[in-house]
Each structure stands twice: as C-alpha cells, then as structure tokens.
Write a sequence for this structure.
C-alpha cells in the first residue's frame, strides 16, 4: 500500500499488510466488523481498514504511556496538538528538550508527553523514540538526511485532522495487552476481529519501551488461543514462536521493513476462524508451517 494514514513511523508497522488483511476480513465477515488491536503502535493498518470502510470501528490499545498519550492528543486535544506542531522549531536544541521530556515523562502532562513522542518519532532514526539517535547525527553533517527530513508539517497535520474526523469510530485504551484481550472478548464475539502484533521475539528489547521476555510470549499465546473471537496474529519468524502456535493455522509471509535499510523479512501469520483465500499461498503467503 503506497499511502500511509498514520503520522507515526513505527518499527515493524503493518501498514503494508493492508491488501492481505483487508481481503481476509472481507472474505470472513459479511458486514464490517469491530476491529481490535492490543498493540496499536502507529495504528497504520487499523486506520487504513477504517478509512476504507472494511471495518465499522476500531479499538486501539497501547500500554506505553507515550504512545497512548499521542493518540489521546490527536483524538481529544487536536487543536492544541496541531498548534504545537506549527509553532515548534525542528532543531537540535529542540530535540534535546523533547528528549528530556521523554526521559522524565512522569514530570509532564499528557499533551507535553504526546508532543515529545511525536517529535522524537519524526526525528529519530527508524522512528524509535528512546533507543535511537537523531536523524543526521547530533552535528547534522549529513546534508542528504537532515533532522527535519521526515517532518513535513503540512502533510502530518492533514493526517492528524483526518484521524480526528473519525473520532466517533476510534476507541482508545491504555491497558495491559492480556487484560485488553480478555475484557474485549466478552461481547458480540461473532462481530469481532482481533489483529495481534506483539513485540518482536528476537529484537524486541532494542525496539520497544515495553518489550516481552520469553515467558511473556508464552503467556500471551495462552491468552490469544483462549479467545472466542476470530483473530489474526503476526510475529517475527522464530522457532520458539512456531512452537507456541504449533496447534494453530500458521503461515510464513514476506513483509517489507523500513528499519535503517530496506529489506524483506519473513514473518509468521497465525489465525483462528478467518477465511484464507486459496490463492494466498501463491500471492501473500510463502508456505504453510
């Protein structure tokens, strides 16, 4: 999918899976469903599904207070958030200010934290908020990739305004993922679709503020497999993950990444209750595991 709807750059974001996920959802549900993501992150896939009317509403959850505060600001404090974008200079001095806010986020209100998250996401390498350096380096010697090269204010503000215009169909949560899955699986299960994209098994600690240990991956697997609702799951292709889901429908597929250098990576796609078209083994899926 060429166009992206999220103003966030997110490691391992699943916007590029839109054609695949959209086809599966439309082949499974006769009417637009309720769509849930326990690890929302940038939310690019969810927004694409909502804007295209493939789903009737989206439920986005993220335990990371920085990410949650950004979504909250876009939806519930839109005008003030846009004012901050317009008036804030994109400079190294400002980068240090926003870095300090992010490093001591308990000292700041939700709007300040939201803007810090947004600023660092647009100015750090690969969009990694805390664990990456600034684009172009602190001395800004790289003329090809200066600090502001991913910070087109006009384009980003347009995206935020569009998201805000769909506010009535976007539900936001700041919960532990397992609690979110259990709580939101209780009603209208025949209308529900969960898309679950947990932190990476192999490199999660280097990418996310809230990453999982091996035991956490096992625990979330138990919770997912107990869901009454239909669900889809994507993961990095690790032997340990294949073992956790060896009793489920599991496929390998290719995903285009944008972490530092362009490359294709093989991921796992697991599901329960979804209708997978026969030709997917020749288009999206590499092979069945």
């Amino acid at each position: 999918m060429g166009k992206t709807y999220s103003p966030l750059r997110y490691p391992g974001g699943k916007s590029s899976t839109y054609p695949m996920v959209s086809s599966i959802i439309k082949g499974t549900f006769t009417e637009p469903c309720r769509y849930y993501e326990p690890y929302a992150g940038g939310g690019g896939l969810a927004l694409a599904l909502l804007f295209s009317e493939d789903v009737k509403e989206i439920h986005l959850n993220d335990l990371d207070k920085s990410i949650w505060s950004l979504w909250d600001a876009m939806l519930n404090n839109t005008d003030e958030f846009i004012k901050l974008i317009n008036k804030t200079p994109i400079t190294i001095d400002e980068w240090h200010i926003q870095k300090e806010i992010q490093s001591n986020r308990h000292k700041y209100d939700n709007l300040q934290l939201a803007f810090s998250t947004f600023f660092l996401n647009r100015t750090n390498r690969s969009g990694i908020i805390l664990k990456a350096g600034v684009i172009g380096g602190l001395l800004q010697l790289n003329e090809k990739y200066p600090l502001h090269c991913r910070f087109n204010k006009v384009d980003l503000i347009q995206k935020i305004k569009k998201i805000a215009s769909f506010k009535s169909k976007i539900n936001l949560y700041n919960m532990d993922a397992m609690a979110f899955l259990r709580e939101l699986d209780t009603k209208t299960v025949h209308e529900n679709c969960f898309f679950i994209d947990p932190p990476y098994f192999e490199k999660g600690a280097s990418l996310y503020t809230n990453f999982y240990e091996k035991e956490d991956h096992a625990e979330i697997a138990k919770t997912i497999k107990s869901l009454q609702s239909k669900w889809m799951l994507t993961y990095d292709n690790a032997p340990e993950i294949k073992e956790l889901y060896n009793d489920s429908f599991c496929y390998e597929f290719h995903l285009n990444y944008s972490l530092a250098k362009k490359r294709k990576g093989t991921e796992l796609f697991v599901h329960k209750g979804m209708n997978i078209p026969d030709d997917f083994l020749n288009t999206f899926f590499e092979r069945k595991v």
